[in-house]
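Problem: given the chain below (177 residues), write out its structure.
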Amino acid sequence: MSTIYTAAVLTLSDLGSKGLREDTSGPALCEILRGDGWDVVHTEILPDDLEQIKAALMRCADELGVCLVCTTGGTGFSKRDVTPEATKAVIERECPGIPEAMRAESLRITPRGCLSREVSGIRGDTLIVNCPGSEKAARECIGAVLPALKHAIEMLRGWSGNCAGTAAHGKEHHHGG
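Solution.
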């Protein structure tokens, strides 16, 4: 039986959560993950709110049990950009190499790449990866680390067999809007 890598994609945007801005980075991440064989079982759009982001990250890891949570948005310098802080608050172990690789790729494209504050870490058996909010930057950053993510999950979960995720497997959930 082939391994099933489950993922959730969370878009963090005040305007997107109110339906005032079209989310293009979340769907782009879903497309890239699916193209690499991931089963995206949950998507959600949330405002830039520390407590809501923390709760969503914990729900994805603890209740949905997905292998990977990718966030997009909230990694810049604005006062409402709190995704890294929410991520740090819920992870048990940080994975600094992932955002380092993403920033290195961004720096090859623009000197502003050093301004992104992405974080990556582990909560239970789930890897959480923050990506920038712009579609272009999210594509570039996930592309820089995508080849390593399945191996990371295999090491984290200690398996080479089936990762069915949860009862939510096979059902995509959309929230926000």
